[in-house]
Amino acid sequence: MSNSHLFLKSGFPRAPLQNGLGRYVCQLQRITLKFCKNNGSSKGMRDFIENHLVDFAKENPGIVVYVKPRRHRTPVLVGEYLNGDREWLSCRNSTQEEITKWVDLLRTQNGSSSSLRLRKMWHTDVPSIQGPWTPFLLRSPEAHGQEYPSVEASKPLDAPQTATEKLIELFRQQKQLGDEDVLSQKRAE
After folding, report:
1. CATH of range 11-118; options 3.40.50.300, 3.40.640.10, 3.40.30.10, 3.60.110.10
2. Domain boundaries, the chain
3. Cis omega (within 30 of 0) for bond into 149
4. In this predicted model, what pLDDT tens digit does every residue of 5-61 receive, in sequence order?
5. What is residue 25's three-state secondary structure?
6. Cα-Cα-Cα-Cα dihedral of 103, 88, 121, 129, to 10°?
7. Residue 171 CB-density burial (10 A; 0-12 exposed, 13-18 middle, 19+ buried)
8. DSSP letter at 64?
9. Which of 6, 60, 75, 119 is most deeply buried (CB count within 10 A of its CB)?
């Protein structure tokens, strides 16, 4: 097990600003594309800028796009989110399609998902006063000493009677009544 989680910020998972309960607010505030104009590792980034960047900017008017040429540096995507987090991705030797996927990933994230060590696996804004549910919460006390697999344990508690079982019970009752009538007639004779 690695200790890389020790260097991450820790916190509780939260939906940013109750996003999705009303209208959707894109959490990506700005994206910066850094590349070299003539370095070979930036070819995919240059192709993306030439072919897809204008369409991306038209489809997402709420996202500010910066293009930053830098000499002799590796291509980088930097996404900045409304909560102040920054996501940094190296795009060295990436193709145009891969960069399109990375940009789409940055656009759909909320910024804190990958850079946050979760302190709990679940979170709710309104915690229950009854406590969390466990698998042993509503289990009957008779189940503690049973060996599994068990036919009795597999039956649901207080199961409603099936139609077939009701018919069998009615038949037995009628048969008992019929037998009692026959016995009473024999006694009368």
Report:
1. 3.40.30.10
2. 11-118
3. yes
4. 666 667 665 656 566 667 778 889 999 999 999 989 999 999 999 999 999 999 999
5. coil
6. -90
7. exposed
8. E
9. 75
Phi and psi (nearest 5°) for 17? 55, 35
**Cβ(50)–Cβ(15) below 8 Å:** no
Q: Which residues of 36-94 form beta strands (DSSP E)?
A: 64-69, 76-81, 86-90
Two structure tokens written together for 136: 């042993």
Each residue's pLDDT tens digit, 62-121: 999 999 999 999 999 999 998 888 989 999 999 999 999 999 999 988 766 556 666 666
Residues 6+ apart with CB under 8 A from 19: 25, 27, 110
Structure tokens at 32: 């910066």
| 3-state SS assignment for residue 78 | strand
The phi and psi torsions of 77 (rounded to 5 degrees) equal: -110, 130
The dihedral sign for the CA sequence 71, 72, 75, 81:
negative
- The position carrying tokens 């000493």 is 145
Instruction: Tell me which residue of 30, 40, 57, 52 sits closest to 99, measured CA to CA.
Output: 52
Q: pLDDT by residue (tens digit) across 127-153? A: 777 777 777 777 777 777 777 787 776
Closest CA to 41 of 79, 98, 87: 98
